Structures
1.
Amino acid sequence: MKRTVFAAFLTMILLVSISFGQSDSDLRITIEKDKGSRDPQGKLLTLPAAEHIARANIYLDNRHFPEAREHAQVVLQNYPNDPAVARALFVMGRAFMWEREYAKAIPYFDRVSKEYPDTKDGREALSFDGACHVRLGQNAEAAKLYEQYTVMYPTGERIDGAYLNIIDALREARDYDAADAWVIKTQDRFAGTPTAVNALHARLRMQIFRGRWNDAIVTSQTLSAMTAFKGSMTSLDEVKYLGAFALERVGRRDEAMSQFASIANNATYFGGLASDRIGDAAGVRRTALVNSANLADYPAAFKTEVLASARAHKLDPRFVLAIMKQESTFRPGVKSPSAARGLLQLVYDTALKYNKAAGYPNLQPDDLYNPAINVAIGCEYLAFLRDQFGGLYEAIAASYNGGEDNAGRWLARSKPKEPAIFAAEVGFAETKNYVFKVMTGYRIYKSLYDENLNRR
């Protein structure tokens, strides 16, 4: 249905009223302040350390990383003894990390963690230091840094994550015995909690990766008997699915099919995959139930824009809509706390990598609130991710939410390269839940619309 002039006018009012929120206002004010804080050669003047840090934080929050570092650098050069140095170092490291310049980030995180260990920035820096080493493939070094965190901060904000990160880092370093020893340590330290479930889940994933199917069956059975799934990185349905997958691999097909059948046939992620598995085995493909889906929740929103950009990049428009539904619920004027804007919630630094190819060479941050521009650049990005991850939709969704390097690492840990195995390997709770929601939405969209977004 074509939007009326009045509806378009209301959309524009909504766009303007939302996009000029507090964070955008702070950013614009800071940019204007910087224009008046430079000498004739354009060099940033030396301001009070607190002012530089305030501006650096605003730029960092809005993902304007070079500008954030510019202010942090002034503090480091002119206020070497000021307490603000800790934050300036952290801003430098975090900005480089967000830009995936991990080798550049590490020296700054090293300094913060060593020189300011009693601050929150110091604790965070040690954890991010480990994360940067992981991203560089330096997993043994990362494990040592995470272990240092467990010693220095036994009640720190990231203590449970430190234990779990040690397991995964050692696994990726191929030190499987040490990784399994930390599974036991984690279970002892966090007995009866979701973290203990996560540790055993890490063992299950490691066994599947190594093709140790009988061990995986035993571990899945042990996990299935646990009760602390709420708040963990896994679920009973996932554990049962992985156990059934392992049963198939050792030829126990009837038991596998029975276990797949025990997973609810609904519109959840593993319910849908289990239904597909049973349908394939029976020679008649079943689909997830979508009768309960409210059609109003799955509209072919912004159909003209989505079809034009999706077709240009040979993307399934229903997948684009599934991403859009999860990102913005079809609201063009929203901005997230991490400075993502518009229908597909693009962050400005990512948009600048694809804007020229999408036909918008002079992109400004507020342009991302324009539906046509947002969808065009978003589809350019999705097409890049599709090519990078071989068309595996779960990996595309994970990368869109959790970052390309993280998705690449999770894919490397996926063996075999099955959608469910990849989904189990996703290492961020938010991203894993995001993948489930997007893929369930995509399944429902495919049941409701054809590839031209016409209602079935």
Note: The radius of gyration is 24 Å.
2.
Amino acid sequence: MTEKIEATEMDHDRKNLDFILDIPLQVTVELGRTKLLVKDILQLNQGAVVELTKLAGEPLDIFVNSKLVARGEAVVVNEKFGVRLVDIVSPNERVEKIL
């Protein structure tokens, strides 16, 4: 009897999980940031270089729906850019970022 109840609960949990698996999420990889004045933005032209706050070789921040979840490194896959995850942010660290 207990096994049948556990199987039913597992089926219910699986259906709940299946329900959320198709929810789209926005994934963003941030190379770096900077602040510029409006006059500096207006003076930008093709070939201009904008210096970012991150150093070359530093891990890239990976956000899901604007929340930091991981860090990674840039890679090239089939002539497209990608990101290899090197560190998953702990739940404690995520909470610290919010506070």
Note: The mean pLDDT is 85.
